[in-house]
Each structure stands twice: as structure tokens, then as C-alpha cells.
Specification:
mainly alpha
Length: 106
């Protein structure tokens, strides 16, 4: 890890690639699957549901593979950013639940 990350800018850049890259790639993948799904299977809603579910599973598998490859190729901050992009929203939702649930008990 020390041979690639010589400056803090590289660390921050890789973290941001990992953090925002997940959402950009997910958006593009969802957009293309939705377009293909609506054009090819226009009136078959059962197949559209199956394809949407399969694309969700494929997306999760691709993210896991990306995290493993980032760690393998010594780009740890990309993997850490990818993991953080999933953890931060969960923490924010949990904090909102805690605040609103606590306020309802008063």
C-alpha cells in the first residue's frame, strides 16, 4: 500500500471514487436494465419483475467483486469508500429512527 499512496490526494481521490462510484455505476446499470426491460418485455410484467430482481442480485455481486479486487490490487481506499457508501446511509437512517422513536416516547 505504501508504494501507490504517496500523497494524501491519492487517498482522498480513491476514497471518493469508491464512495460515489458505487452510486454512479448503480444508476447507469439500473437505467439500462429499465430501458431494456421496458422495450423488450413491454407487456410481460412477470418477466419484468424477475429481471429487476436478478439485476439487483447481480449488482450486489458486482460490488462485492469490486471490493475484493480493490483490496487485491492494493487500492484499499477505493474498497473503503465503497463500504462507507453502504454504511453511512444505514447509520443516518438508524439515527433518524432513534431520534423519532425517542421523541414519540416523550
Amino acid at each position: 500500500m505504501s508504494d501507490y499512496y504517496t500523497t494524501t490526494g491519492k487517498k482522498v481521490g480513491d476514497f471518493l471514487i469508491g464512495f460515489f462510484g458505487v452510486w454512479v455505476l448503480s444508476g447507469f446499470l439500473s437505467f439500462f436494465v429499465a430501458i431494456i426491460n421496458s422495450v423488450v418485455f413491454m407487456n410481460n410484467y412477470t418477466i419484468q419483475g424477475w429481471i429487476a430482481g436478478i439485476s439487483f442480485v447481480v449488482t450486489i455481486i458486482l460490488y462485492i467483486v469490486a471490493i475484493v479486487l480493490a483490496f487485491h490490487f492494493k487500492r484499499h481506499y477505493i474498497a473503503i469508500g465503497t463500504i462507507a457508501s453502504f454504511v453511512v446511509p444505514l447509520i443516518l437512517v438508524g439515527a433518524c429512527f432513534a431520534v423519532f422513536w425517542g421523541m414519540s416516547l416523550m
